[in-house]
Amino acid sequence: MTSPQPDVRTSKGAGMDSFAWAEEAAKKLREQFGDRLAFVGLQGSRARGEETPTSDIDLVVLLDDLDDADLAAYKAVVQTMPQAELACGFVGSPDVLTKWPRHELFQFVNDTVPLHGKLPFAPSDFTREEAKDAARIGASGIYHATCHAAVFDGNAEEGVLRELAKGAFFTLQALHFSRTGEYVRKKSDLAKVLSGEDAGVLAWSLKAKATPKLAPQEVRELSRLLLRWSGNVIAS
């Protein structure tokens, strides 16, 4: 079972009330789609209250069914919103979502704050073993991309590693849940409960977001850490 999560609807960082923005978008979507609108939620750093001024606004929108005309109508609604260029996220239908791979749904469901309707799943529907699968698959992608960047990406390696370090946060969330049954939403809270290489990877996740340029020795250090850590997660 997941631990109860606090109400995080207080995200007002970066000069924007992210939940007010999302609530306004949900209102416009209800006007556009009526009873066909099954769900609207907010994900990502803005849902966690950890956004920067340029952070994406990650909306989740589910309609009873979805076709190309619906996508065009949804796009038109988004374009009426302030700072529409920051909007992104998932759009689909509940039926499609129920067929989605469970390892991806683990993070998707736990990271989403509902604003309208309900998702087809609850956080408590997921087991520690499913979270372990999510962690292993996430680590596999990090392992492969770290190796590829070191050999083939040349000057782009730093940028690749920076993104891998930031994305490792989600693998760490799944890994921690697989061990404890506790889903920790925020990076700052996760940092309090991790140790060893897990804590080191999270520290790099925070540093990669805050540091505009890594020194060459830092690039090599990060590459070694990600390779070793992701390999250990896969093998565990």
Produce a short descriptive summary.
The protein is α+β, with helices and mostly antiparallel strands and 236 residues long.
Characterize the largest beta sheet: strand count, sense, and whether it forms a barrel: 4 strands, mixed
CATH class of the largest domain: Alpha Beta
Morphology: globular
Spans of at least 5 consecutive residues with low confidence: 1-8, 10-14
Helix content estimate: 55-70%
Beta content = 5-15%
Helical stretch tally: 10
The CATH superfamily of the largest domain is Beta Polymerase, domain 2
CATH architecture of the largest domain: 2-Layer Sandwich
What is the count of β-strands? 4
CATH topology description of the largest domain: Beta Polymerase, domain 2
Q: Which sequence of SSEs, written as H and E, runs from N to C? A: HEHEHEHHEHHHHH
Q: What is the total number of structural domains?
A: 2
Please give the order of strands in the largest beta sheet.
Answer: 3-2-1-4
Average pLDDT score? 93
Describe the protein's architecture and organization.
By secondary structure, the chain is an alpha+beta fold. 57% of the residues lie in helices and 11% in strands. It has helices spanning 18-33, 44-48, 68-78, 94-98, 102-111, 128-152, 157-180, 187-190, 196-210, 216-235, and strands at residues 37-43, 57-63, 87-92, 113-117. A 4-stranded mixed beta sheet has the order 3-2-1-4, sandwiched between helices. The radius of gyration is 19 Å and the shape is globular.
